[in-house]
C-alpha cells in the first residue's frame, strides 16, 4: 500500500468500530476524489470504477449539473424538517412520479434502501391486515434490523441475533438452480409459491406481500427467466397478495430500461428506489398506488432528515440528467455491446461459467462446475492492480459484477472489457 493511503487507513482503523467493511479487506482502496467514471486514491492513482461505488453513480460521480444543484441549494436551505412541506420536496415528488409506472402515484421518502424496504413492507401489512412476507433466496434488502429479516444470507443476521421473518422461495437463477432439475426454474419457483399460497395445509400464513428484486444485484446479477415476473403478478392478483419490487439497485436506468421490471412489462403495487436516485446523496423512496399509500394516520412515518432539501435537489438533478442525457438508452446500447464482447472473449474459458446481463448491469459467474469465489477475489484484485474496479457478489461470492456509471465513454469501457477478458 502506498504511504498516504496507509496513513489514512491507520487513522481510521485506530478508532473505528470493527463492524465496518473498511476492516474487511486487508488493503481497501482509500478514496479521495471522484469524477465521472473515475476514483482517485489518497496517493493520487486513478481507477476506472466499473461498479459505480456499489451501483450508485448511475449519472457519474460529481456530475456538473448535480454538483451545481447541490451548491445552489446549499446556499438557500439544507435542512428542512420532515414535518414541513417545501417546494424542493414537491419538485422531487413530481419528478419521481414522472418516471415510475402508471399505477404508482404516491411517494413516501426514505433515506436508505433498507429504510425504504421496511416502509414498503409495513405499508403492505397495513393495507392487507396480514403480516407474513414472502421473499426469495439471494434477496438483499439492506441491513437494518427490520430489513435484514428478509435477507437471503443468514450470515447478515447472525452478528445481531436476529431471526428471519419471511417465507423464502428459491430465486430462479437460469444458470444455477439445481433444485429445478431439468425444469424451467421460473416455472418451478412459481409452482412452489402457488402451492404455498393456495394449499390450505401449506403451513404458510397468507402473506401481505411478495418482496423481490426484478434482477437480483448483490445476489449476482441474476435475471429470472422470462415469464417469471408476469407469473408472480398473476399469482399475487389471484391471492390478494401485494407485489413489491425492490428497484434500488437494478432500477434507475441500470438495466437498459428505467425500471428492470419494464423488460417484462410488469408493474408492482409498491416499489422501492434508492442508490443512484440521489445523484450521490442519501435518498430513497417508496412509490405506490394511492389506496396502499393512504392507510396511515399522519406521523406514522418520520425521521429527522427524511425531507432534506439538499438530497432532494441532488435527486431532482440526477433524474433530469438521466432523462436529458438519455442514459437509459445508452445503458441498453452499451450494455448489449459489452455483453457480446464478454461472451465472445470468454467463450470456452474454464474459469467462467456464465456471462449475463441487461443494459450496463453485467455478471460474470465464475467457476464452470462449482462456484469459484477464490478466483473472483483474485480477478477483482488483479483488475484493481490494473486500475479497474469491479464488484463481487453472488450467493457464494463468485460473481464479478459490472455496473459502471451510465455515462462511461465507449472506448474506455471497451478497454476495460479487454482487461477483464485478459485477466480471466
Ligand atoms: C437491491 C437492494 N435493496 C436494498 C439495498 C439496501 O440499501 P441501503 O444500503 O441504502 O440500505 C441494497 C443495497 O445494496 C440493494 O442492492
Report on the structure:
The protein is of the alpha/beta class and 424 residues long. The chain folds into 2 domains: 3-59 and 326-423, Aspartate Aminotransferase, domain 1 (Alpha-Beta Complex); 65-324, 3-Layer(aba) Sandwich (Aspartate Aminotransferase, domain 2). The chain has 12 helices and 15 strands. It has helices at residues 3-15, 52-55, 64-74, 87-99, 113-128, 185-198, 228-239, 290-293, 309-324, 327-346, 373-385, 410-423; strands at residues 31-35, 38-41, 46-49, 106-110, 132-136, 167-169, 207-212, 242-246, 270-273, 284-288, 352-357, 362-366, 388-389, 391-393, 399-402. The chain has a 7-stranded mixed beta sheet with strand order 4-10-9-8-7-5-6, with helices on both faces. A 4-stranded mixed beta sheet has the order 1-2-3-13. It has a 4-stranded antiparallel beta sheet with strand order 11-12-15-14, with helices on one face. The radius of gyration is 21 Å and the shape is globular. The model has no long low-confidence stretch (mean pLDDT 97). The protein binds pyridoxal-5'-phosphate. Pyridoxal-5'-phosphate is lined by residues 112-114, 117, 140-142, 213, 217-218, 246, 248-249, 274. Residues 112-114, 117, 140-142, 213, 217-218, 246, 248-249, 274 line the site of pyridoxal-5'-phosphate.
Please provide a brief summary of the model.
The longest helix is centred in the C-terminal third of the chain and has 20 residues, at about 325-345. The chain has two domains: about 5-60 and about 325-424, Aspartate Aminotransferase, domain 1 (Alpha-Beta Complex); about 65-325, Aspartate Aminotransferase, domain 2 (3-Layer(aba) Sandwich), CATH 3.40.640.
